Amino acid sequence: MLAVSDAVPIEFLSMVFVCGDDLPGLYRHFRNLRGIIGDIPKMNVVRQAGPRDIAQALAAGFDDVFDISEMQMPEARARAEAILRRYRLNDGADHAPVTSEAMARRLTRTDLRRRELALLTLLIEQSKKVLSVPDISTALSGDRLGMSPNAVRVLVCHLRKKLVPGVQIKSHSGRGYSISLSSVKKLKP
Fold first, then answer.
1. Model-level pTM?
2. How does strand 42-46 pair with strand 64-67?
3. Residues 6+ apart with CB under 8 A from 57
4. Separation CA 46–CA 22 (nearest Å)
5. Quick check: 33 and 27 in contact, CB under 8 A?
6. Which domains are assigned to the chain?
7. CA 7 → CA 13, 40, 106, 115, distances in Å?
């Protein structure tokens, strides 16, 4: 069973350990939490893991598997520290770009609904342009009819309330919307 605490914001965590014996259940829950956990090391702590179990854990997105029936504490500590070093070395590396969706999640204070995330991602990807309401409508709905102009305005209004300080969705009267990221500190990948 996985427990996610609201007491510690996820950005303050440097590593996540997921423990339990119900491996299929753990992997199912873990896949649902990957978007929330983000880009921090994830360790699977199990008892008596065979090669197939380890392969499934790594395929599910874990960075390493700690089999506590065979691993001694010095080895576990050394492996955890090595993984943390690799993550820290990759912070800001050119070969590990931040996706627009990952950046969108970092620019908000709360979880976004599907369309809010899609709109913020679209604005980030087109950050040098002013996007018209019909263009936004078509991009978010996936068809020519799109969303009504009022629905787009309401969506923008809801999204603005969830943005971190320094991020603004600007209205360009009669033309559409754009995003301003100029006063946001450089984001870590």
1. 0.48
2. parallel
3. 23, 27, 44, 46, 49, 65
4. 9
5. no
6. 10-90 (3.40.50.2300), 100-180 (1.10.10.10)
7. 11, 18, 19, 28
Identity of the residue numbered 86: R
What's the 3-state SS for 140-180? HHCCCCCCCHHHHHHHHHHHHHHECCCCEEEEECCCEEEEE
pLDDT in tens, 120-133: 988 988 888 899 99
Stretch (H or E) spanning 52:
helix 51-60
Report DSSP state, residue 10: G
Query: Which regions of 11-124 does DSSP assign to beta strands (E)?
Result: 16-19, 42-46, 64-67
Quick one: CA torsion of 39, 41, 46, 50, rounded to 10 degrees?
A: 90
Q: How confident is the model at residue 31 (pLDDT cuts 50, 70, 90)?
A: low
What number of other Cβ atoms are within 10 A of residue 173's Cβ? 5
